[in-house]
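Note to self: keep these together.
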Amino acid sequence: MSESIKIDIWSDIACPWCYIGKRKFETGAAAFAEQAGANAPEVTIEYHSFELAPDTPVDFDGDEVDFLSSHKGMPAEQVRGLLDNVSSIAKATGLDYNYDILKHTNTVKAHQLLHYAKAHGKQLETKERLLKAYFTEGRHVGRIEDLADLAAEIGLDRDDVVRSLTADEYLGDVRADQAQGHEYGIQGVPFFVIDGKYGVSGAQEAAAFAQILDQVWMERQMEDEGATA
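Structure:
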């Protein structure tokens, strides 16, 4: 098996396109693996922090329509239409968005939890749990106690999560991710960095992700052949 292909993904928990993009990437990666067969390289994923609205209060007084109306300066009816549209797109990827119960919040603590989870080998499970909690279940992902409850559900030590988040143990890692994203010129998410050299912006179709993974794999094979020639 070839050396793994590394995928670095900048995203935010409060980003509907990030959850959609996650599903589309997963579908594309599965298609690539199936096509490549037994010799397919492993695809490894690491998530990086990006805050779409860092000035959001932890306990926002209002719903998603209120937030976007004030944040984007759009009429409420236009916002509802946008939310209906993104919910339909999400549904086509197997996701059920429930904006009626969504609790808009600041996500910096959630990003710290993702770094904590990475240190304990559970970043991917934590990312999925947080996105589902936020977009589907109406759970709060901005408060320490609520985040600790979610972390415990996937096997992380609840008390230690509370300790870590209270102490801002991984805040420096969050800021480092954001600084690196700025250096890359990332202005919106999701943003995928493939094998450290290809940037893919947005929730592309699964076929596009499969194609770029195949391209990277073919380049790897050509490099290997060149090195042994």
